[in-house]
Amino acid sequence: MATDAQILTLVQWLSPAYPVGAFAYSHGLEWAVQEGAVTDAASLRDWLADLLDHGAGRSDAILLAAAYNAADTAALAQIDATARAFQPSAERLLETTAQGAAFAQITAAIWPADLPGFTYPVALGRAARLHDLPLVLTARMYLHAFTSNLVSAGIRLIPIGQTEGQTVLSALTPLCAEVAEAATALTLDDLASTAFLADIASMNHETQYSRLFRT
Description:
Blueprint: H1 4-13, H2 29-34, H3 41-54, H4 56-68, H5 73-85, H6 90-110, H7 120-130, H8 135-157, H9 162-183, H10 196-205
């Protein structure tokens, strides 16, 4: 069972106040809203559920677990290279590398450890292992933070109200736990993504005329 100290460390790492710049990224959602693929709370919930179950949510949890279980630095480097190669667009690569570098820098400064600027899930998985934090809890909280950030983006973009946004997040919380538990039992051989419209959204967002977000 996780201790209070472990839980609070993860709460701090995955808080919106932790300076990884997550607020600047919409993961392609900005284009989806512009094109009418996401228009209200219900379609936002469906979009995010697909991301968690079939897209970046599941794959990030697998990568996080692989980094957590990595035997040595060579294995970590290979996992990070896989994470980079798995990104479907330049913007998604920017999203995971920029957040990962920021996370590694601030975390290593506060909790001294050898933590290179890996992609975000790899950096988080490695940090959790270095500080003896529970793997499944780390993955659950990572996916909840990922979802929370995109709900916040949806509130601003669609727009929807704060109550509707929190209702969406509450509805998706059980799925965050379910995906985390399943994905952390898998290996890199199980990496796959079928959230194709989200990938296309991130590609199209690169040339979107007017943008609030970096992705």
